[in-house]
Please model this.
Amino acid sequence: MHNEPVAAQTAAPASTADQPCATQEQSARELQRRGFRAYEVDTDGNAGVTYRRRDFYKVALMTSDCTVHYADRSIKLPGTSLLFANPYIPYSLELHAPRLTGYSCLFTEAFMKENDRSESLQQSPLFKVGGSPIFPLDAAQSTYAQSIFQKIIAEQNTGYLFKNDLIRTYLQLLIHEALRMQPAETFLQPKNSAARITSLFLELLERQFPVENPEQPLQLRAPGDFAQQLSMHVNHLNRAVKEATGKSTTAHIAERIVGEAKALLHHTDWDMATIGYGLGFEYASYFNIFFKKHVGLTPLAFRKAV
Model:
């Protein structure tokens, strides 16, 4: 049985709490090679391991009382819940019980999309940035999900020639169980030019995140930057975004930068100047002014408050 870290600082695969770093790296490389790993979670509430972001998606069945700190949000898990995490959003778990229990499945996009040319997982309603990753389950749904995880764990250790296909099918069952809980408007596709342009703009905006290396700051920070990338006049972009969302292009950009700033303040130990530079601010004072304008607190005050 594998242990899940209680205070993982970024979305990453779990491993035994006292496992040496070299063994953790080997485990990560093996997961990357195979594309998939599933395990039962049962770890002491005092355990804790810090991880870097990794290139893995995650579906987890959480059966302990805990709070998920996801990017700049905190979500209380009311009983048993399904958690869908992507490699782009940092999260941590705050446990309110003696032990953390449940199941986890880690997989790469290449594993899940083998022989499938449909949309990227990052664009799916469950894994997209800005979506809601938590789905509370009732007793019947919990029993069903637990049975699927147990089948996945059992199947990964068999010699069945087509076990990867079967595991993908089991994962799809979990995904569809959550999709059934989503409101219908989640799946609506853009119907007009303004909506299509806005969708392209928002996708381009999200591609810049997360900020993992402060030495590679954001390149697109103004509406004109995005308009140039999309080969259109900035006024055309601004009109389309305003028509489709009711908010300006500048407001969308600022909200996303603020969200990433909050996540970095909460999940990293980078200083204010480093975070500001990574977000495209040449001087820490510019970052302080921007953050306080939108949040009402200085970055340092926000970090101390979370």
